[in-house]
Amino acid sequence: MDLLSSGRCAPMRISYNWLADLVEEIPVVDALADLLTHAGLEVEAVERLGQGLEKIVVGQVLSKEPVQGSDKLHLCQVDAGTGAPLSIVCGASNYEVGDKVPTALVGATLPGGLRIEARKLRGLDSAGMLCSASELGLADEVDGLLLLDPGLPVGRSIVQALALDDVILTLNATPNRPDWLSHVGVARELVALTGTRLRLPSASPEESGAEASSLISIEIRRPDLCGRYAARVAEGVHVGPSPRWLQARLEACGVRPLGNVVDVTNYVLLETGHPLHAFDLDKIGGARIVVRAAEAEERLVTLDGKERRLAGDDLLIADGSRGLVLAGVMGGAHAEVGVGTSRVMIESAYFDPASVRRSSKRHGLHTESSHRFERGADIGAVEYALDRAAQLIQELAGGSIRRGRVDVHPAPRESKSVRLRHSRLEALLGVSIDVERSRRILESLGFVAAASGEGELRFEVPTFRTDVSREVDLIEEVARIHGYGEIPAALPGASASPAIRSQGERVLERLRGALRAAGLDEVINLSFGDRADFAALMSGGAPGETAPPGSDASKIAGGAGAAPAAGAAASPAAGGAERAVSTQADRLLHGFDDAFLPIKNPLSGALGVMRPTLLAGLLKNAAFNRNRQVERLRLYEEGKVFRPMPGKDSPISEAWHLAGLLDGSRHPASWASDAAATDFFDLKGVVEGALAAVGITAIWEAGDAPCLHPRSAARISAGGRVLGQLGELHPRVAAAFDLPSAVFVFEVSLDAIVQAAQLVPHYAGVPRFPAVLRDLAAVVPKDVPAERLREVLMGPAGEGLVEGAELFDVYQGPQLGEDRKNLAFAIRYRASDRTLKDDEVQRIHQALVDALVREVGAELRA
Q: 30 CB contacts (<8 Å, ≥6 apart)?
């Protein structure tokens, strides 16, 4: 049976008693946990089995009488070894007189917190409780009492009777160390740390009868996916329950006992780390095993009862006519060992990690076997694990082990040899470790010292250390066992020349500082996500919608620095320079054309495409926090976004973006201020402040991003480049992400910002001569942005004497007409070498009025 485990890198449960059997001396539990953790094998938890079960004993039912007026209750007389029999009322029905069951005495506290007291039930005295496995914390909810071995003595502690006197260490084995997924692997680590000796269990079955090769044949058709396949044959076995000691060890490690033969394969997996599988030999067609790729649309019913449709790159263990096992993942139902099985074939093999990982992921099966094969099982353990299982089956299920193994090993691997230079070890660790000490450490870990030259050693790498291939790997092992705490702390030598940071790094540093100062927190999301999330952003609103009159966006369009509304032709800037808009920035926050970059092997269906925008991640962050009652959020993220570029030299576009989100009240709740809601201008202020930190004065215009509400969508540009867009999230998009209305977002191109940034400020002296201030009000068509007027006022008609032109009023009303608006500017005139005279200012002021009439069709308003 192949046991299902969780999909993540599951922690390994290690039995302290089991570990003590494998080493000559073992530290006490707490010292052991510290020792392993400091060596890199993190102990996540320590669980003491049997704790709290001290007053629960083996009891024998002497009599069982129905309780009058009840359909379920019985009054039992129970011998619990306390002298006189105990009267106990019990509601279970699966026991008879003479059975031995766990008996909780008065004063006992069960794992669930229930304290046992003497009490009356239906008017009858009850002095104790007869327990089920679930009530003892040994199993999930089950019906009936736990029936014990009839040979157990009455009055014995249930902890001793069920072999529960153990401690479980939950270890978090890193993916590069599959050897830690076993008791032998942890014992080997302990030997290196303490200097004790390893006691490997016996693996020498008594052989008799015919050669195994005469009973089964093996053919490997895909040696690239199956590097070795070995088998032994046991005949005359009797399938039945395992002895209690074996069941207890499996249960302690989270494995449910299923019967002696299958239990042995699971026991050896937990002991050696090498997965095994047991077949009913009589169900293998033609007494033949074929390791092959699955055929197209081939089906296999796995042990979980589900029919799997296989793919061409699934590796299959088959007989002459049908598939039997999804290699390295889960067995099939056709050749399953059952009660009637008498002849067993035991499989021990090595499968390619990538192949097992593909099949496991494709079929949604993450088993204890696949968990180990995916990380790289030990091809050198095939023989030992097979012999160990054969010996245990012989001891626990009877029968005989046929002579020899059938072992097909198409291309035996040469052992790896890695050198270790003492000078290199000292240079990397900054500490001198004796050469002999280094050799002893590595040999205790299973490395074999080979011929060496002066100042260096050479080691043969054991097959279970799939992570070691370089000299630095050996140095890491020496440092780990020597103890990181034994390496003195020392500051490295500092370079005299400072690091030179790029323009992009300096721009990002200033932007981050400005955003943090505005109260935004940085988040980091994955670079891939759910296609549905991006599609929701893409379809949020109707592209091309313009802002209605009176909206925030229309105020921007009429405000300082505005440009034409979406869909309107942009007027050329002063001097005839055309606005250069990059394709990437122009599409920022617009539709994504269903042009997503799919991931060929996604972690899950919800993470199937590379992100074309940062906003989806921020919105999911906001929804996550909102669902946990965090109602004021100010977030930002910077990172790469990805889009396909068909027909280009590079098929993928990677752009560097910055995005942010404001949600909730403007300020935290306080007695000193009202909890005013965040609005568009809060967001605009945040973005303006960030851009000002890198020397950019932005131009604002009405935008048309489909994910933004038309009333406040705005486009940002500077230096002839579109930087991005901002505004209120469209209500339909907000609903798609389970967010309320009035969520404000922005996303800008960092690549464009870096190009437009002016990090070195320009200073001018304090003016020596006074300025002359004049106001100018002009009536223009409402689709003419204020920025166009400002360009004219700051242009050549001012003869270089216009120091500034600031918009201070916008008016629209019936007096002007439906399609017209009044823009009022405060103009500041100043000369650097003289005091301006009234007639000179009046002449230039009139020239500006004439330029406005001529270039934008303005009417001067008194």
A: 46
The predicted-structure confidence for 263-309, as pLDDT tens digits, reads as follows: 999 999 999 999 999 999 999 999 999 999 999 889 999 998 899 99
Q: Six-digit token pair at 660?
A: 């942010």
SS3 (DSSP) at 228: strand
Euclidean distance between CA atoms 6 and 751, whole angstroms: 42
Q: 567 falls in which pLDDT band (50, 70, 90)?
A: very low
Tokens of 687: 């973005």
Q: What is the DSSP string of 433-502?
A: --HHHHHHHHHHTT-EEE---TTEEEEEPPTT-TT--SHHHHHHHHHHHH-GGGSPP-PPPPPSSPPPPP
Record the pTM: 0.64
Amino acid letter, residue 118: A
Distance (Å, whole) CA 235 – CA 542: 74
Distance CA 255, CA 248 (A): 9
Strands 288-293 and 217-220, bridge-based pairing:
parallel
Q: Which of 102, 77, 81 is nearest to 89 (CA)?
A: 77
> Which residues touch 460 (CB under 8 Å, ≥6 apart)?
415, 416, 417, 447, 448, 449, 450
User: In sequence order, what are the residues at sequence separation of 6 or more whose Cβ sits closer than 8 angstroms to the Cβ of residue 537?
Assistant: 592, 613, 615, 616, 706, 707, 733
Chain centroid to Cα 535, Å, comes to: 23
Order the strands of the 288-293 sheet from edge to edge.
217-220, 288-293, 315-318, 323-326, 330-331
Partners of 822 in the β-ladder: 779, 811
pLDDT at 141: 65
